[in-house]
């Protein structure tokens, strides 16, 4: 079964061409998905980096705290026996403890410091010039009392305090996390600290790695999107080229068919004129000459004149038939339904194939060109029945479907049907192609199939005007 539906191209009105619209419809979703995917990835990745950075910073700080607690514990164990036993007296024990603390170092900038209860520096290896100086009222750049806060943490049982202090390795102020413990018998605050620049470096390094990974992912996504766009564009270009090539081929074939049809029609009209009307006119002329001879000889020419009139009537009938084939006058004078009924009667008389016709009056439901198209479809279908169907019955139904705003035509015969019902529009199927093209040109659709009970069924629908 074949179903053909028309697809009328929109008129040129300055808008984008249809193929450009197809290209945009194909590419824009890819670009939109890629853009929003990239945007979501970028936002989520930044949020993840921020969260992970805070988590890593928190873990490093916790690790530094534990490290400081361990260092203080080591320092306290190193001076514990001297602090408790005070060999050589308190002054000598304090001197020994100071020496031990001065010699205790760890990592690059790790050292221990000690202050008495008044805030006087007792041990400070990187800055020996501070020994003996009272730093109780020393403030950092954030206006915090450094030694007072450390002493308070130590007296309260030992805790951490973050402050700004000079970094010996860089010579610049840096954030330092300190931990202080208290030696109550001597009133000393013993402490150490770690500079937090390393934490910032590790966090920044992590963020740089993550952002590099994000840029890599975004680059890959962009390349994939670009590749997809290129594939779509190339595919549409290839399809466009193929369609153009196919359209050119079809146009050439259509042009050839039109020329063939014109030549066949001209040949048919020429043959009808030469073999029919021309021969009849020659015969009339011959009889008229014979009549003139009889008149000159005073003989009666009535028999020849009667025969001439009969031949003249036949000539007039042939002229009418040719005129009707070229353009049916009944279509203009009495309408489509009457013209189809007349066509059916003439077909039945000439072929002896029983023709049943049910035709509703169409009126102004169709334009004149659409009526001519339906008439030609009926004419072509009957010609095909006579030539190929081997049928003895034909049924033609023309009706109005006002509910669907359509005019429907159906033609059925009881012949042998199509040899290839799935592809009736073969290269030789010129008549069927002509019917299809006539219906399509007026926005209709055409269905051709073999009937279940045998024969061929043709259905055509045209929208009402």
Percent range for β-strand residues: 15-25%
How many E strands?
A: 12
Helix coverage percent: 55-70%
The SSE string, one letter per element, is EHHEEEHEEEHHHHEHEEHEE
Number of domains: 3
Q: Strand order across the biggest sheet?
A: 1-11-12-10-9-8
Q: Provide the CATH architecture of the largest domain.
A: 2-Layer Sandwich
Largest pleated sheet: 6 strands, mixed
CATH superfamily of the largest domain: PAS domain
Ends apart, CA distance between termini: 28 Å
Computed over alpha carbons, the radius of gyration is: 54 Å
**Count of DSSP helices?**
9
CATH C-level category of the largest domain = Alpha Beta
What is the global morphology?
Answer: rod-shaped
- Looking at the structure, the CATH topology of the largest domain is Beta-Lactamase
The residue-averaged pLDDT reads 81
Low-pLDDT ranges = 1-13
Query: From the helix content, strand content and strand pairing, which structural class follows?
Result: alpha+beta
Subcellular location: Cell membrane
Organism: Cohaesibacter gelatinilyticus
Main location: membrane
Membrane topology: Multi-pass membrane protein
Describe the protein in words.
58% of the residues lie in helices and 17% in strands. With 465 residues, it is an alpha+beta fold. The chain has 3 domains: 45-195, PAS domain (Beta-Lactamase, 2-Layer Sandwich), CATH 3.30.450; 228-326; 328-463, Heat Shock Protein 90 (2-Layer Sandwich), CATH 3.30.565. A 6-stranded mixed sheet has the order 1-11-12-10-9-8, with helices on one face. Strands 2, 3, 4, 5, 6 and 7 form a 6-stranded antiparallel sheet that branches. A hairpin with a 6-residue loop joins strand 5 (159-166) and strand 6 (173-183). This is Two-component system, NarL family, sensor kinase. It is a multi-pass membrane protein. One of its GO terms (cellular component) is plasma membrane.
């Amino acid at each position: 079964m074949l179903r053909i539906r028309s697809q009328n191209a929109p008129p040129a009105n300055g808008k984008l061409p249809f193929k450009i619209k197809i290209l945009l419809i194909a590419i824009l979703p890819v670009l939109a998905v890629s853009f929003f995917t990239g945007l979501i990835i970028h936002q989520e990745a930044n949020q993840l980096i921020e969260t992970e950075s805070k988590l890593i910073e928190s873990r490093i700080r916790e690790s530094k705290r534990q490290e400081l607690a361990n260092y203080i514990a080591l320092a306290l164990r190193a001076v514990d026996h001297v602090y408790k036993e005070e060999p050589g007296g308190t002054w000598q024990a304090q001197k020994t403890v100071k020496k031990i603390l001065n010699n205790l170092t760890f990592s690059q900038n790790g050292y221990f410091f000690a202050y008495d209860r008044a805030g006087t520096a007792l041990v400070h290896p990187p800055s020996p010039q501070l020994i003996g100086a009272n730093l109780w009222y020393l403030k950092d750049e954030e206006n915090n009392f450094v030694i007072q806060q450390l002493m308070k943490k130590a007296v309260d049982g030992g805790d951490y305090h973050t402050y700004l202090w000079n970094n010996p390795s860089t010579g610049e102020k840096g954030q330092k996390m300190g931990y202080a413990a208290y030696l109550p018998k001597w009133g000393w605050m013993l402490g150490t600290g770690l500079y937090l620049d390393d934490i910032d470096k590790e966090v920044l390094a992590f963020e740089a790695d993550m952002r590099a990974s994000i840029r890599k992912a975004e680059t890959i996504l962009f390349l994939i999107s670009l590749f997809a766009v290129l594939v779509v564009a190339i595919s549409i270009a290839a399809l466009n080229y193929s369609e153009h090539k196919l359209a050119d081929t079809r146009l050439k074939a259509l042009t050839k068919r039109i020329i063939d049809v014109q030549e066949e029609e001209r040949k048919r009209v020429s043959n009808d004129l030469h073999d029919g009307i021309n021969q009849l006119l020659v015969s009339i002329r011959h009889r008229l000459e014979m009549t003139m001879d009889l008149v000159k000889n005073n003989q009666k020419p009535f028999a020849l004149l009667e025969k001439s009139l009969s031949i003249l009537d036949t000539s007039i009938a042939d002229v009418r038939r040719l005129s009707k084939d070229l353009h049916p006058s009944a279509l203009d004078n009495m309408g489509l339904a009457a013209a189809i009924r007349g066509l059916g009667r003439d077909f039945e008389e000439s072929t002896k194939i029983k023709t049943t016709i049910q035709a509703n009056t169409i009126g102004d439901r169709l334009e004149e060109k659409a009526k001519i198209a339906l008439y030609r479809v009926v004419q072509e279908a009957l010609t095909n029945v006579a030539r190929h169907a081997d049928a003895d019955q034909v049924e033609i139904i023309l009706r109005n479907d006002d509910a669907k705003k359509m005019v429907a035509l159906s033609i059925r015969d009881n012949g042998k049907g199509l040899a290839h019902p799935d592809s009736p529009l073969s290269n030789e199927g010129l008549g069927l192609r002509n019917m299809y093209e006539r219906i399509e040109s007026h926005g209709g659709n055409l269905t051709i199939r073999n009937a279940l009970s045998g024969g061929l069924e043709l259905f055509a629908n045209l929208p009402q005007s």
